[in-house]
Design brief:
By secondary structure, the chain is mainly beta. The protein has two helices and seven strands, in the order E-E-H-E-E-E-E-H-E. The longest helix has 6 residues.
Length: about 160
């Protein structure tokens, strides 16, 4: 679909990443790419997602927040840090087809090493990925829209 833009979207956790039933998702699939690839998990109706695509929005990320409802997508990104953060986060590294390459939990004050094939990074409060079924090899889908109010730095 082209370039990502700052704003809001909905995140859905799809099947096991085999691509069955996903003929439209190409290697550079952007926002809202591809239909369902399998059974969904996570909250009914999807997970509220903040998209941080500009340098300013990515640099701000979750800094200054006490928590997060849903998740935030940093794109393009291949690594993150938790310096000056107030809470632990779950981090999922995604490739260009929105397949999860790795998942980890990071406490505040840590530097995560960059993942070579990662093109996007998803962040959520610690424990969220386990509840929503996000794990290595799983595909996610992102549907642009107004699923959550944008934070002041993105609006």
């Amino acid at each position: 679909m082209g370039r990502w833009r700052d704003g809001t979207a909905t995140l859905r956790v799809l099947g096991d990443g085999t691509g069955a039933g996903d003929p439209e998702a190409g290697p550079d699939a952007g926002p809202g790419a591809g239909p369902d690839a399998g059974p969904e998990s996570g909250p009914e109706g999807g997970i509220p997602l903040i998209v941080a695509a500009s340098y300013r929005a990515r640099a701000r990320g979750l800094l200054g927040r006490d928590g997060l409802t849903g998740a935030i997508l940093l794109t393009p990104a291949s690594g993150v840090h938790t310096f000056r953060m107030r809470f632990a986060i779950d981090v999922a590294y995604l490739d260009r087809r929105l397949t999860v390459l790795a998942v980890r939990t990071m406490r505040p004050g840590r530097l995560g090493r960059p993942r070579p094939r990662a093109r996007h990074v998803l962040e959520a409060e610690a424990g969220a990925w386990e509840r929503w079924g996000v794990r290595r090899g799983v595909r996610v889908a992102i549907t642009p829209g107004a699923s959550a109010p944008p934070p002041p730095s993105l609006g």
